[in-house]
Design goal:
Distance between the termini: 6 Å
CATH topology: TIM Barrel
Shape: globular
Low-confidence stretches: 322-329
Bound molecules: S-adenosylmethionine, 6-(5-methyl-2-OXO-imidazolidin-4-yl)-hexanoic acid, iron/sulfur cluster
CATH superfamily: Aldolase class I
Helix content: 25-40%
Number of strands: 10
Mean pLDDT: 95
Number of helices: 11
Strand content: 5-15%
């Protein structure tokens, strides 16, 4: 097995990213075979437990209060309703439930107490629980860990250089600090980004460089294609070419071989064969269910049909709580 590296240079990542496409896919598939069971795909299901009204200015996001988008804004959902949705998602094959809230950061209040209750209750259902709630302090991360949280999603979204063209209400360093708090609390890290926001190839490489040089690689790396939502500043961005998704997935697979790479937002626009290319290039996770947080996603039955055609199998929960230190290469 190739050694896990945390010292990839930008130049090396660029060379990988720019490899002729078929050669890149073959190399990524080779790494994938060494580190993962071929055909096994982890399924996550998303619930937006608190939607819209967010004070941040993320240019891609329909939930920012300052943009006028057509979403259904609602406050914190009741615990029972969330657990009920989790049970249904599990019955449909999801091993992980991801709870999202349109917050800038977590506050130590009753809403956070309710999230803690949700985490405990979904854990009882033998599902991995993930939260994405914005910035976290060390003590809040600790509290989530004690409740049994399995993963925390906090995306870098883009490169450090491109960041202030997309978000001005917080810094790249704020993002990195939260990832640090999550890691310290021994919760697995889910962190990746979005392509199709007007970034350059250098920006994509820069983001992959930051992710792959973290003290530990994120255990999961979501690669999202921008879903352009009317009313947001990025509403007129054109669709990401599939070869760009493939290059992102394959490069992530090669430089972070043990991570689960998630083919995230944007699948609705991709054909079965385009998605198949991404699986070949090392993607081994998806969000399933007919809705992401606020935008549509492929129908569950359609995804299961794709699994059947491609010979993919849903991965069971808690299969490998692997950290890089626990498993020697
Ligand atoms: N508020 C929290 C935060 O920003 O971390 C959690 C929820 S936020 C919606 C989670 C992630 O969804 C963002 O970091 C971004 O990567 C992704 N996202 C949001 N809107 C998107 C869009 N229109 N297209 C693709 N990804 C999007
Ligand atoms: C991630 O990387 N993508 C998911 C999840 N983590 C939280 C969210 C995608 C959101 C797409 C736009 C929406 O549905 O609002
Ligand atoms: Fe708020 Fe998160 Fe959307 Fe940014 S991405 S506006 S922080 S919900």
């Amino acid at each position: 097995m190739d050694k896990i590296r945390h010292d990839w240079s930008r130049e090396e990542i660029k060379t990988i990213y720019q490899t002729p496409l078929l050669e890149l896919i073959l190399r990524a598939a080779d790494v994938h075979r060494q580190y993962h069971e071929l055909g096994e795909v982890q399924i996550s299901s998303l619930i937006s437990i608190k939607t819209g009204g967010c004070p941040e200015d993320c240019a891609y996001c329909p939930q920012a209060a300052r943009y006028h988008t057509d979403i259904h804004v609602h406050g914190m959902m009741p615990v029972e309703e969330v657990v009920d949705k989790a049970r249904k998602a599990k019955a449909a094959g999801a091993s992980r439930m991801c709870l999202g809230a349109a917050w800038r950061e977590v506050r130590d209040n009753r809403d956070f107490d309710r999230v803690i209750e949700m985490v405990k209750a979904i854990n009882q259902e033998q599902m991995e629980v993930c939260c994405t709630l914005g910035m976290l302090s060390e003590s809040q991360a600790q509290r989530l860990a004690e409740a049994g949280l399995y993963a925390y999603n906090h995306n870098l979204d883009t490169s450090e250089e491109h960041y202030d063209k997309i978000i001005t209400t917080r810094t790249y360093q704020d993002r990195l600090n939260t990832l640090d708090h999550v890691r310290k609390a021994n919760i697995t890290v889910c962190s990746g980004g979005i392509i199709g926001m007007g970034e350059s190839e250098e920006d994509r490489i820069g983001m992959l460089h930051t992710l792959s040089n973290l003290p530990q690689h994120p255990q999961s790396v979501p690669v999202n294609a921008l879903v352009p939502v009317p009313g947001t500043p990025l509403e007129n961005q054109s669709r990401v070419p599939v070869q760009d998704m493939v290059r992102m997935v394959a490069t992530a697979r090669i430089i972070m071989p043990r991570s689960v790479v998630r083919l995230s937002a944007g699948r609705l626009e991709m054909s079965l064969s385009e998605q198949a290319l991404c699986f070949l290039a090392g993607a081994n996770s998806i969000f399933a269910g007919d809705k992401l947080l606020t935008t549509p996603n492929p129908e569950f039955n359609e995804d299961m049909h794709m699994f059947e055609i491609l010979g993919l199998r849903p991965r069971e929960a808690f299969k490998e709580r692997m950290t890089e230190t626990e498993v020697a290469p």
